Each structure stands twice: as structure tokens, then as C-alpha cells.
Amino acid sequence: MDLLDCVLKGEIEGLDSKELAKLYEYDIFTLGEAADYIRKKYHSDKVFFNINRHINPTNICADVCKFCAFSASRKNPNPYDMSIEEVVEQCINAYNRGAKEVHIVSAHHPDHSYQYQLDMFRAIKDAVPLLHIKAMGAAEIDYLTRKFNVALEQVLHDLAQAGVDSLPGGGAEIFDEKVRKSLCHGKADANRWLEIHKKWHSMGRMSNATMLFGHIEERHHRIDHILRLRNTQTSLEQANNKQGGFNAFIPLLYQRYNNFLKAKEAPSGQEILKTIAIARILLQNIPHIKAYWASLSFNLAIVAQEFGANDMDGTIENESIQSAAGAKSKNGVTKDEMISQIKNAGFLPVERDSLYNEIKVYDETSKCW
Ligand code: V47
Hints:
Residues 47-287 form the Radical SAM core domain. The chain has 369 residues and is of the alpha/beta class.
């Protein structure tokens, strides 16, 4: 049977990542049409976004990921470390400007105490109880368990108690062991990353999953990454866990400046859109595919909504990780701009909360916003 037909029917047993990478050999329109069919089945013409604020409390890091231009290094000799009060103040200001979510990820600061992390989240919840805290990538959690010798279950429990509502998808990079070693030797490996998310899901909680692509990996490494996420989500369904799981998959396009990774040529727009479409086709058990505009550029993220994606991420306000490596995303985007760009592309803008509950649909009856 035709490979794409098999995949669309979910019949991929016995096919490995190299065989499935042949999906890339279909032309972009065939893949786009298949992906669009699935996105329409789940989300019709809705494009989700949220009003959020990204905060990165410190860039001082004990790890050395070659692709990272954000952490303070000899290429970016600009170390900073925010106090808890500063972080809380930014959260209050963002909330007062309409943010529903704060996305907090940090470098692995060698001198922060275990308590510091928990105190930060408690202080945010005390100050702005209605602000959803999406924070702590799996690699940060792994760092805490190793540095302070605290069991994973305990760390996750403590974070949830302190106010963390959901986990972001960062730190996944590429799961393939060999590629991962060249990218970020010493950081949580693939199994650990997945274990952390699975444990969090077993607590009835949601998280996201990213994939960093467009650097030294091959197509089949991306497929392998996607399959490991698909299998993890399937095992959760089989365990009959009705509450926790992955909410969104986010392919992050590698930004190539100010870091230490010697990457191949940047992938073409066609290769990027095919990657997004294939993710939609293979990951039918993860509800949302996010075209993260800060990584893809706003225009391509909008086009990606025709190729399987159904989410743009949010207004962000202040972006530091992608922009440190060359992306033009430093200053976020306004809510009005987000809504009008989604509308102009012929989609229905839907403001969502962090867990994809709809807050407001910007249809023709809601002309003023
Ligand atoms: O894990 C670092 C990536 C991630 C580069 O969960 C880079 O909703 C491209 O995880 N080029 C952090 N990417 C960001 C992240 C994220 C972003 C938006 C939404 C969500 C979510 C999560 O940024 C890191 C790493 O994979 N990153 N350096 C770079 N040069």
C-alpha cells in the first residue's frame, strides 16, 4: 500500500524511522493536503494563540549546549540573574496587561538553591493567583534532581505545590542518542526527558514537547523523535490516564548565530513545512501542533497553519532564546497584530488559555478587541 495511505490509517507497525522518512519524498502539496485534512478534522479553521509573557530569570548556566546562544558564554559575555522580586514584578505587570500565562525557563544556575526555585513560583502565585505558570523544562528538573539529590517524584510534587501548572516542551532537542551527544552532552538524555514528562502526566498534568531541527540531524532523526513522542502519548492512553498528557508539539527551527554548533545549511521553507505536515500526520494523538512564530518567523508560522499547525503560541512580549541566536523575535507581537494576521490569512483567531480552553473567538461578530 502507498506509504502515506498507511500512515494516515495509523498502520505504521513494523516501519522504522528510515522507512517513514520517505514521507519527505512526497511533494509538499500532497503532504500539506493530508496534514490540512487532519487539522481541519480536529480544529476546523481555528488558529489558537494566547496572551503570554516569556521570562528567563537567568542566563548563567552550568551546562554547555552547543546550539545555545542565550546562556552567558564567551560569545555572549552578558551574565544576568534576576531576583525573585524582579520576576514577580514582571509577572504582575504582564498580568495587568492581559497576560494569562507566564512561560518561565532558565539556564541551570550553579548557585541557586532548591528553595530559590520553589520560592519563586510561590511568590508568583501569591501575587497573581490567576496567572498560569508554565515553567521548568525537563532538563531543568533533571538538573535539580541531580544537584540536590532529590527524587524526581519529590521535585515534581514540590513544583506543583509551589504553583507550577504545566511544563513547557523545552530541552527535548533531538532524542537520537548520537546526535544529542554532539548537541548537548551531559544534559538529560532522551529517556530521562520522556520519563520526566511521563511522571508529570501520571500526576494528571499537561505538558508540551519540542523538537529542535535544522542543524546536524537527518530527516530520520526527526521521525525517530516524533515516534518516541507518539509512543509515549500512546502508553499514557493505554494506562487510561484521562487527564495528563502532551498538549502540543512544537517544532523549533534551529537559529544559527552566536553559538558553538557548526550546522549544515539552513533548511528550505519547503523542508520546514514538510516537517510540520509530517508531524501533524504522525502525531494524531497529540491534539495541537504549534508553529512557534518566534522560531519560524511570523509569516512562515502563518503559512504553517495550512500545513497542519493550528497554533501560533502567544504574544510573548519579550523573547530571549531564539533572538539571541539570530531570530527577529525580541519584542513579541501585539494581540491586535496577532488577531489581524490570523484573520487576513483566512483563519478564525481563537484566544486560548494555556490548556487550550477557548477564551474568546474573534469571529465577524467580535469586530472590536
Ligand atoms: O529547549 C535553544 C531551544 C528551547 C536555540 O512549551 C533554540 O509552549 C532554536 O522550549 N535555535 C526553549 N532553538 C524554548 C521552548 C519553548 C518555546 C516556545 C513554547 C514552548 C512551549 C517551549 O529553545 C530549548 C531549545 O530547544 N533553543 N537555542 C537555537 N539556537
